[in-house]
Amino acid sequence: MESKDLVCRSAGNSTQRISFDQKERLFTNLLPVTQLPRLLYRAKTRKRSWQALKEESKKGIPPCCIVDGRIYALADPMHKSNVLRKWCTRSEAPIPATEWTNDPERFNDVVFLLNQLLGKHMGQCGIRYNPKFKRNYFPRENKTDVQFSREWKSERTNVSTFSLALPAQQTDGSPVSSQSLPAGVFPP
Question: I need a labelling partner for 39 at 20 to 30 A (CA). Which of 53, 79, 146, 182 fits?
Answer without folding.
Answer: 53
